[in-house]
UniProtKB/TrEMBL annotation:
Assembly and binders: Monomer.
Keyword Aminoacyl-tRNA synthetase: yes
Xref: Gene3D superfamilies: HUPs, Ribosomal Protein L25, Chain P
Organism this protein belongs to: Flavobacterium xanthum
Matching NCBIfam families: glnS (TIGR00440), PRK14703.1 (NF011291)
Lineage of origin: Bacteria, Pseudomonadati, Bacteroidota, Flavobacteriia, Flavobacteriales
GO cellular component: cytosol
Subcellular location: Cytoplasm
InterPro entries: aa-tRNA-synth_I_CS, Gln-tRNA-synth, Gln/Glu-tRNA_Ligase, Gln_tRNA_ligase_bac, Glu/Gln-tRNA-synth, Glu/Gln-tRNA-synth_Ib_cat-dom, Glu/Gln-tRNA-synth_Ib_codon-bd, Rbsml_bL25/Gln-tRNA_synth_N
Protein's UniProt name: Glutamine--tRNA ligase
Gene it is expressed from: glnS
Domain tRNA synthetases class I (E and Q) anti-codon binding: 460-534
Catalytic activity: tRNA(Gln) + L-glutamine + ATP = L-glutaminyl-tRNA(Gln) + AMP + diphosphate
Residues in coiled coil: 551-585
PROSITE patterns documented for this protein: AA_TRNA_LIGASE_I (PS00178)
Amino acid sequence: MSTEEKSLHFIEQIIEDSLSNGFPQDKLRFRFPPEPNGYLHIGHAKSICLNFGLGLKYNAPVNLRFDDTNPAKEEQEYVDAIKEDLKWLGFNWTEELYSSDYFQQLYDWALAMIKNGKAYIDSQSSEDMAVQKGTPTQPGVDGPYRNRSVEENLTLFEGMKNGDFPEGSHVLRAKIDMTSTNMLMRDPLMYRILHRHHHRTGNQWNIYPMYDYAHGESDYIEQISHSICTLEFVMHRELYNWFLDQIYDDSKVRPHQYEFARLNLNYTVMSKRKLLQLVQEKIVNGWDDPRMPTISGLRRRGYTANSIRKFCDIIGVAKRENIIDFSLLEFCLREDLNKTAPRVMAVLDPIKLVITNYPEDKEEWLEAENNQEDESAGFRKVPFARELYIEREDFLEEAPPKFFRLSLGREVRLKNAYIIKGESVIKDAAGTITEIHVTYDEDSQSGSGSEASQRKVAGTLHWVSIQHALEAEVRLYDRLFIDEAPDSHKEKNFLEFMNPNSLQIVNGFVEPSLVSVQPGDKFQFQRLGYFSVDKDSAEGKIVFNKTVGLKDAWEEKGKKEENLLMNTQKEINKYVKEKDENNANLILNSIVANIKSIDNYSLIIHTIVKNVKNDNNSLLFSNLILHYSDKVKVKDIEEEALIKLYSMSLKSQLAAVRILAIENLQNDLNHFSLLEHQLIELKTKEKNEKVLQLLNNLKI
């Protein structure tokens, strides 16, 4: 096998096999079939890149077909947004089509199926139908209307079409097999009554086809050769083929369905229903909120089409579900922006810096490189003067040894400018530093080649000249959720994992070269990250969105939290061994503070369960987390692990473990009653006064 063949993903291999077996290449045809009931998100980007990528690879047409069969949820706004997203991603479709284009044909085929005894009108309630269909382990049974006459079915179906019946009174079902092991084959719905206005057909129809019926038949009408969908449709393939069997003409191309693993991304949700909830409840500011995983949200935040296409290319096409780290998407973005984004200087948390030995009336325009990764980017001029803004965090009055920024008596370089030395500060009545006074070395200008300019200093700071700087609103966006799998936890609402710091708005200052920026323009704010001009910008008001930091802050935070918990667990041993009560309390306070600072819900749960073992210190650690963390409640712990934790803790030789277990049980009445007998038994044997006092206060 050649290197090229080895690099083919499995869908490409299927197509190659089709061509090898005689399928004409000019008959290849693909489609991207979104339902216009929401905005596209990053998960759809994988399907978009796959389908349109196949079209480009095989020089085959790719249709954009809107599966618009549910007017209750679909809107023209979504159609327009989907088209805009596709164009922005860089893809062009062959034909713009709609399932609603085929409503008459689908209806005619349904009539033929009724006449052939393959479909019937069912008048049961949805609840009765659900019972009648059985369960995955129990076959269904025939419903009371399954054997209606063809004439009665035709009459009822015509009445449904004409709007003679209320919603929910009748449905059209395919007559297949009520005992099939595939529950989707147990007489699935084909049509339901909906007295709703359709965004394209208006009020022409009172019945609308179900997705499973319309999708495959639409593929057939369009002569799609390879119908590619995600793995959740594997069980639908049998039904897809059954519907095709009813209409297939062997003189035409018969579509075949193939499934690939959808894109699952951590720290976000991909459900349109949940994304819609975020929009409707105004938790975010619309579908294109830069915190949303929608393509329009990513675009507004400053993502590039190239970075998203690259991301989809890296993750590839597979048959098995897996979860992709959000950091990979951010890596692709940084890699792209690093090559293309001009470097500029901005200060987001300003503090005034005065160069006391720089002439008050002097002004210089210094040369600054636009992008060291792009030789063609050239240079720009930035103004330099006596009074500047620097970042507040870039100065400490008294700095520790590894602080590589400005402090009193220490030298640093100002980017593209001079070396300065901290001399003194001015403070307000509250003791807050309001000004930093420094001196500069006139011979140390960057790029001058002088001996002074080559002097080694602690670090390099970015800055802006106060008299020249432009004020800007800067929206600091972060991930929308603090948990890596916010919608995967039983009995937890995904909204419980919202990141309270997902948006912070600050007023900063940027260099004057940005005076004419336009929405969508992208820059690297040196030492701060990548930023994009938001559409809310107007004349005299620049608004920037933080697109992504220069480093993966979340990976660093995750590692810090893991390390913090590991180090905290080591502190447990010190706490247990400490004889002095005051020292022990100091250690305990530190342990509790660390526990309270951890945001990662999954990490907390895992740590609690992992430490449910026959070890006093581990049991103490689990009980402390359960007691003091505000991110987890007893109902979040698996029942078996929780009971084991309580039971083992009450038997622990360490009084501190028994005390915490009793206190946790006092807040968990459901398990208190289950372990009451063990508490009573402990009360008869307990010798520690504090534990006895707790037990005596219990109503047992």
